[in-house]
Amino acid sequence: SYSENVIYIQEKLSRLQTSILNYFRLSFLVVPIWLTFLIIGFKLFFNINIYNFGDTWWWISQLIFSAISLPLAVWMFIQVSYKNINKRWVRFFIKNAGGEQATKAMEFLKEINEFKKD
Q1: d(Cα 54, Cα 35) in Å, to the nearest integer?
Q2: Is 86 helix (H, G, I), strand (E, B) or coil?
Q3: What are the C-alpha distances in Å from 3 to residues 8, 9, 26, 108, 113?
Q4: Residue 112: its H or E element
Q5: Could you report the per-residue pLDDT of 45-104, keeping only the tens digit for each?
Q6: Cβ–Cβ contacts within 10 Å for residue 21, how many?
């Protein structure tokens, strides 16, 4: 509906453009649980119980990797947002995930939020 406030419409459009960023952010949270996908994938696609093939040290290394990567994945999930678009590394991730369009939309959302504060 174009009868609504212009700022409200622009904000809705910008949020739609940045939805790709949300999928990218969620991909960080998948990293610590990738071992689960490995086990399920081998069982579904190859009917192989991979649990029986891994030795003790391999399983320990996978669990350590998951434990170490969990806090990093949560931190990355929190940091990669339009609120941190001013950080160079966040811009780098966003440009590679959603391109220039998402970056511009996030910068515009930041401007809208600043405008609403005034």
Answers
A1: 12
A2: coil
A3: 10, 9, 34, 21, 21
A4: helix 88-117
A5: 998 888 787 788 888 988 899 899 999 999 999 988 778 878 888 888 777 766 666 667
A6: 20
